[in-house]
Amino acid sequence: MQVTTLRAALAAGPSATAAAPGHVRTAWAALTARPAATAVLVPASVMLVLGLWGLDRESMWRDEGVTHQVASRSLPEIVRLLGSADAVHGLYYLLMHGVLSVHPGEVALRLPSVLAGAATAALVAALGVRLARPRVGLWAGLLYAAIPLTGYYAQEGRSYALVAAGATGATLLLVRAVRRGRALDWCLYGAVVTVTVLLHQLAALVLLAHAVTLLLSWRRLDGRAWRSWAVCACAALTLLLPLARLTLGQSEHTAWLAGADEGGAASLLKAFAGPTELVVTGALLLACVSLNSPLERTGRLSLNAVALPLMVLPPAVLLAASQYTPLHHDRYLYFALAGVPLLAAAGAERTARVVRMLRARPGRRGGGALFGAAVLAVAFCWQLPLHLDDRTTEQRPDDPAAVATVVAERVGEGDAMLYLPSAGRRTALAYPDEFANTSDIALARSAAASGTLYGEETGAGELRRRLANLEHVWLLAEPYALREGWDPKSAAERAKLTAVNEEFLLRDEYQTRSGVLRHYIRRPVDKPVGWPPAHH
Length: 536
Prior knowledge:
Layout: H1 2-12, H2 14-18, H3 22-33, H4 35-52, H5 62-71, H6 75-82, H7 90-102, H8 106-131, H9 134-146, H10 148-154, H11 160-180, H12 183-199, H13 205-216, H14 223-248, H15 264-273, H16 277-292, H17 303-321, H18 339-359, H19 367-382, H20 384-390, H21 400-410, E1 416-420, H22 426-430, E2 439-440, E3 443-445, H23 447-450, E4 456-457, H24 460-468, E5 472-477, H25 491-502, E6 504-512, E7 515-522
Parallel strand pairs: 1-2, 1-5
Antiparallel strand pairs: 3-4, 5-7, 6-7
Helix pairs in contact: 4-8, 4-9, 5-7, 6-7, 8-9, 8-10, 8-11, 8-18, 9-18, 9-19, 11-12, 12-14, 13-17, 15-16, 16-18, 17-18, 24-25
């Protein structure tokens, strides 16, 4: 009722607004009295609500499971792991160790990403306010919150939402440091950039975007700004070098990445600006308006000079590099998304000015901002099915919780369990309660004790000896591991396949989207190869 009254008052004009009930006039006055603060707080609040909506999916996909099981280890165990694997996520694991030590669980696992998403929406809005005007910031922040990709990573227990917040915060600090020229501002910029690149090394591409931003504005900058930026960039990259050297020796953990294909750029653009065709088209048209008819500068840096390099350069460089080595994935470029809503909001501002000139009448205070926000609400509703889908387990790469449930229901107490390949043990590490009664027959040392992600397994000879004493065994396999032609490199993995195929018979099989659970019994010497028939 209050919203209806307020809309009616706005539609009728200032006189009707003045005649509105007291609480409506008070709310509207509060919103318009401090437009800059409103422009920042509203997108942050919207993004926070969207991030908390459906946060508990009751399943951690495999990367989230790794975050949970690594961050749940002791600090010495985490440090030991980083020497052999996943050093690229080391700072994030240490941060999550503190979070999960307070309150372990899937919601707590994702909560830092939710808060980072809300912070990024506020920072995008603050950039729009600083580089243009409050309503540009409001529209940019709301558009950022309305993009489905934002909600997707804001609800994921990985570092990418935090990296986006860091990159956007560093961009805002760059704008402030160039405008003020104070050493403290440059120190803050350097500190935020350093933390961001330590959260994920590929975030260093934001420095390239910032360099081009300064280059596009070189006529309005003095040598001091360039020197200050160079010092900050060199300091961040210098601190990054030891981590980069360490992760180069762990490149086998990115072997799953594929090179960029011909549609890589198009799919990335669609994810950043849409992804529905109507929203993509509208966002790109508005961005083109902004580039063709830039808004007036409010400082040394223009909005286009800040947003365009951030949106274009990191994806372009990574896509080009992926032609030679597999590095491309949308999640690594998520921090560059902030440039899209800024350009689109600037184009909307320019379009609104043209419309107002054609109407030859002044607009009501705050009316244009509210109308733009309403348009964004319509765009959000248009893409609501995508937001709903993203809050289900089906939209994540896998669903280990479903596999763990099957194991808990089917496997008996003390039954032997094999994992094919050994990385499949991550399901047991993510959901230890469901596997508590099973016996990991191939395990030599646990993941935490061995300083590895999935534990160390016994050799092929010892595995055959252990299997020789078993009358039945359970096998939890990744779907690809059971396909014909899969050739494992490890002798232990080959021993598993050989043993179950030659010494055991398949009795039962339970398939899920994320794994296959098989029950094998020892082959009787007096029975044919086809006995007994498998039950599915």
